[in-house]
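User: Hi! I have a protein structure encoded as tokens and I'd like to know what sequence might fold into it. I'm fairly new to this, so please keep things simple.
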């Protein structure tokens, strides 16, 4: 109990990238550049979708929600990480660590659910195009988005409670750059088997439930595409899903590797590399992928850059 109280009052210290020595300033410049591009790109996508009436469809509405969720996710992690790269080891209170874990886990789970909803949207668009407008109405879109955000928050809260009900040992140094579940769990005292199982179950529920919906959606989508009469029509139908499918592969690949593993397989260097990919690179890839592979987004972005949309706004 004394050890737990000591950790509560002292909080934690992020070691982050302290082992990189002088390379930390190079990492700071690199991550800052990537973060500014990520933040600008996601905000720009949200604004463009809001201003361009041609993009006021369920597909782009969900894309703007995903961009918003990604922006909130990075805001809770990257600014503190950048500060740590400049100042070295950085303190965070016990409550502050719990709050950061809650928000990072909540937004990460929300991203999973939003990707599943976007898969369902593509299923309706391709498999029932004549009924798309009536089925994917504004009311249903709001319900799907609201459920995604609410579910993400509940799972984030569950993961945080599973970790922070544990007693912590005298060591309070987190071998990471934010309060993620694996590194914080490694500091807990005693038998953490039940907590590990709890985190695994919650992670499985989020990842498998959302991925299963995506898999079912794309099974029907593929069957519908194969039934089309010409190759040109098949390519056109598949092109509407290519961006979403690419983001799903990147997102679920990183998330599965990070959270669907036993505690014994954690590795500081490897986990930090995957975490950097998930927190810095993936949020940057989303707007790039949707901008490069989607003609409607390309047109809207081009109009915005030329001043057509922003001038009218």
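Assistant: Happy to help. Inverse folding works backwards from shape to sequence: for each of the 313 positions I chose a residue that suits the local structure. Here it is:
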């Amino acid at each position: 109990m004394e050890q737990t109280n000591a950790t509560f009052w002292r909080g934690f210290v992020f070691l982050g990238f302290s082992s990189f020595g002088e390379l930390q300033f190079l990492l700071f410049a690199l991550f800052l550049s990537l973060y500014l591009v990520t933040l600008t790109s996601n905000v720009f996508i949200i604004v463009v979708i809001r201003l361009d009436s041609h993009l006021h469809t369920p597909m782009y509405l969900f894309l703007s929600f995903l961009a918003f969720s990604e922006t909130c996710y990075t805001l809770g992690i990257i600014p503190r990480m950048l500060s740590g790269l400049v100042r070295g080891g950085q303190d965070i209170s016990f409550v502050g660590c719990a709050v950061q874990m809650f928000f990072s886990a909540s937004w990460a789970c929300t991203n999973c659910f939003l990707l599943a909803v976007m898969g369902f949207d593509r299923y309706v668009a391709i498999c029932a195009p004549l009924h798309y407008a009536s089925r994917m109405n504004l009311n249903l879109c709001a319900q799907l988005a609201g459920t995604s955000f609410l579910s993400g928050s509940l799972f984030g809260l569950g993961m945080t409670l599973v970790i922070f009900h544990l007693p912590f040992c005298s060591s309070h140094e987190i071998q990471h750059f934010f309060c993620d579940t694996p590194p914080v769990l490694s500091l807990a005292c005693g038998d953490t088997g039940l907590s590990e199982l709890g985190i695994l179950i919650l992670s499985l529920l989020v990842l498998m439930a959302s991925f299963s919906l995506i898999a079912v959606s794309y099974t029907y989508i593929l069957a519908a595409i194969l039934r089309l009469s010409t190759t040109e029509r098949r390519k056109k139908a598949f092109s509407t899903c290519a961006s979403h499918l690419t983001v799903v592969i990147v997102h679920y690949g990183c998330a599965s590797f990070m959270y669907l593993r036993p505690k014994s397989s954690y590795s500081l260097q490897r986990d930090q590399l995957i975490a950097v990919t998930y927190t810095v690179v993936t949020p940057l890839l989303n707007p790039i992928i949707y901008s490069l592979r989607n003609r409607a987004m390309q047109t809207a972005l081009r109009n915005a850059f030329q001043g057509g949309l922003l001038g009218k706004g």
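A useful reference point when you look it over: The beta strands are 12-14, 90-92, 173-174. Feel free to ask if any position seems puzzling.
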